[in-house]
Amino acid sequence: MDLYDACLGVVHHFLEFLDTCSSGQYRIGCRRAADAPIPEVEMNGAVDRERVGAGSFAPASSAGVERLLAQFRPGLRQRMPDRELRAEAAVALAFLLTAVPLAIWLPGRGSRSAPVVVLFVALYALTYRIEFDVGSGYGPPTQLVLVPMLFAVPPGWVPLLVVAASVAGKSPSYIDGSRSPDRAVSSVANSFYAIGPALVFSLAGVSGPHWSDWPILLGALAAQLACDLVASLVREGLRLGSFPQLSLKLLGRVYVIDVCLSPIAFAIALAAVGRPEAALLALPLCGLLRFLAQDRQARLAAAVELSSAYRGIALLLGDVVEADDAYTGSHSRDVVDLTRAVGPLMQLDDDQLRRLEMAALLHDVGKIAIPDAIINKRGKLTPEERAIVETHTVAGEKMLENVGGLLAEVGAIVRSCHEHYDGNGYPDRLAGEQIAIEARIVACCDAFNAMITDRPYRARLPLDVALAELRANRGTQFDPQVVDCLLMLYEREAVAVP
């Protein structure tokens, strides 16, 4: 347990340290999913590579997981874009230029028996086929075989054996067309992580698995993660043409898989001393992980379908609002466009962005319950009529609660879309951080769009007057940060004026 705790501690501090060097944005992939297609989705100004570790284990908890999963597996059939292929090939070439001399000049100790080598290559290929979804990538439990292999065969050979096993493991996918053959080059680039521990084992002259060698083992694990991280950074830099931004929280879950499996793998290595066939002890655990992986894939696929259903319902309700009142429908779509621009600037995560978009589309859905005579009245509303109009947020919440699921969450936001930052809004007179961030954004975008469009009871305001109103109500009616984001967007002419 000491080695296990030490490994977890080192990895935790390693990731925490490097995360402070990053911007916290969503950016980079890793060896576990690097042969996956790269969805060209713009997020906060940078390309969002297929990600790992986004969201929690619960399959429906992250909009990013669902969105990227929908793009991930079908895209494996596609050929890699030229620039991505060149980046992968460059890293693969660097790997070969390192691994081949290592195997020749610094092989280290271990069995050179062909049956032993074949056994471990076959085991690694088998575990590499287990794709345990982590975010939109996957984390095969290859650590269960890598660690015993480092003790059983010359460690300097291991990187090349890992390449052979990786290509062999994915060869059925290349043959049946579920994965484009050019993605085999990624199997070479992905194997860069094996260079680190192989080099540590060879230089240290490790002769077998001994608990007393825990500093060397810990160093080998750290070298493994470091090599993987550096290779991923270089690959992304070559693909993007600039130094990539990196959120290690997205890589951390895959690295944690390696860390958690390492003590089990070490136990298998102990059992395999003098009996290489004991490495087959990994098979029952691999079978369990395969079962869990298949179950998780099914759950994630169901989550994607459910997310699409929620979005379809939201769009349908938006159409109902527009059919009932053309202005309200058009206004809601304009508010959606504004919130899409503001949300990333407020550094909302994928779940929040999804709720924000739906809340913006449906923030006036409760007006279906308000008499048309009041909604379309050209004159000033009476206090009684105003009180009726103000019930539309609660009515909208109840409608969405009846749908349930994600839309029930959106309903809670819709209820608060007319709250004021200073607590003078309705229906609950919430203030400041008591108001959901999504509701604060919708409230500001809603009011601003209302000012710059024609209403039944008044003509639109000039843009400069509307912007002045935002400034005047900054910190009272509106969240100051949201106002600042809107002002910046219009100053940069990043959004169109209706």
Short characterization:
The protein contains 20 helices and four strands. It has 498 residues and is mainly α. It folds into two domains: 299 residues, no CATH class; 167 residues, Hypothetical protein af1432, CATH 1.10.3210.10.
- Count of folded domains: 2
Q: Give me the count of strands.
A: 4
Low-confidence stretches: 10-61, 68-72
Q: Approximately how much beta-strand content do the residues carry?
A: under 5%
Sketch the topology as an H/E string, one letter per element. Answer: HEEHHHEEHHHHHHHHHHHHHHHH
Largest sheet: 2 strands, antiparallel
> What is the structural class?
mainly alpha
Globally, the shape reads elongated
Spatial separation of the terminal alpha carbons: 63 Å
Rounded to an integer in angstroms, the radius of gyration calculated over CA atoms is: 28 Å
Helix content estimate = 55-70%
